[in-house]
Structures are given as C-alpha cells and as structure tokens.
Amino acid sequence: SLRAQIGPSILNADLSQLHSESQKLLDNGADYLHLDVMDGHFVPNLTFGHPVVKCLRSKIKEAFFETHMMVSKPEQWINEMADAQVDQYTFHIEPVEDVAAVCRKVREAGMKVGLAIKPKTPVEAVELFIEMADLVLIMTVEPGFGGQKFMEDMMPKVKRLRDNHPLLNIEVDGGVALNTIDCCAKAGANWIVSGTGIIKAQDQQAVMKQLKDSVTQ
Ligand code: DX5
Ligand code: ZN
Fold it and tell me: What is the ipTM metric for this complex?
C-alpha cells in the first residue's frame, strides 16, 4: 500500500557538517535522505558524488538513502553508488539512450530504481518504463538549485500517473514546502522531497510532521 515518505534534500544544508545535519534530519522524523548528485553537465551546478555518499553511509548505517542523479551518464555510477550502500538510484531518463538497460543494471546492483523527469519532459516519456521502476520523480523545478519556485503546472503529470498507477510511488522535488504541499497531495504524490522548506525552518520536526500529515490519506 501507499505510504507517505518525507525525504529532506540536504543540498542547502551546511555541507561542511553533512553527517550531523543529516542525523539531525533523521532524528527529527525524516523517512529517507534525498542526496542530490550533480555533474555540472546535465545541470549547471556541482555537488558531490559517491565518495561523499560512501563516507556519509559509514556514519549513518540505518537510514534509506536515495541518490538523485542529475548527471549526463547515470549508467557510469551504478556500481559506485551500490558500493556506497545506496538504497535507491533515481536517475533522469533524458540523457539516457537505453533506459531499460540502465534500470536492469541498477536492479542487478541491488538498488531500487527511480526514474526522474525534468519539467519540460512529458510524462508519456516515463510511462513507457513504469513496470521497471519502483518510483517516478516528477521535478517541480528545473533541476540544479535549491530554493526555486514550485511549478504548480507539473501537477497534471502527477495526477495522470496516480490515476493510471494507484500503487506507484510518485515523488515530487523542487519548491515543495508547507505552502505547496497540498497541491502535491491532491495530485497524488506520496514521496515528498523538501530542501529549503525544511532546512531553513526553526522547527524541522514540526515542518516534517506537517508535510507528512498533509500527504497521509
Ligand atoms: C534541485 C534538487 C532538489 C532541491 C530541493 O535540483 O533536485 O532536490 O535541492 O530544494 P528545494 O526544496 O529548496 O527546492
Ligand atoms: Zn533532488
């Protein structure tokens, strides 16, 4: 059955304190960590890669790690991320020639498969591969930076997926916070990424609880 899951993005946290910032989010009720990997090519920004994720994993053994791979060659980092004990490898389909092959490799490496699409990519493009995926990520900003404005016009994509796939995990990412969560919930998203909306909050625990309550049916 569908469960609401709150996954803070640590992109706009104090990355010099990655471990303690992540642990604080988990202690305050995060269901998973959403780790934004950028290569400066697929998106116009750089963050971190598998060496950092592996170090974080060595400090945080239990939590569910999702890496959001905003990279031009997602097929290149599957084994490294599996070695870092990433639980779910969510990659963009736009730059990938053979999506099905990458899905298979991710699964063979022991990770769950997430398929992500940018705002300009039609939902039909990802629907072709849904049988192979554990989750679909509908971006609600252009990927690359935290703190951008939520694109409400992405909600029809979520709604269409939800109508056609009642049990699919559907994730939204970008500008999701207390003021936009109701749109996401109404459209049918159940995995909720929120970056600045949580990181900048005085009371992270209260915000994550409110986000989760908004999505819980
Ligand atoms: C954007 C990233 C998001 C981002 C979310 O490219 O994929 O995960 O950090 O941050 P907010 O919630 O601030 O938009
Ligand atoms: Zn993300």
Answer: 0.99
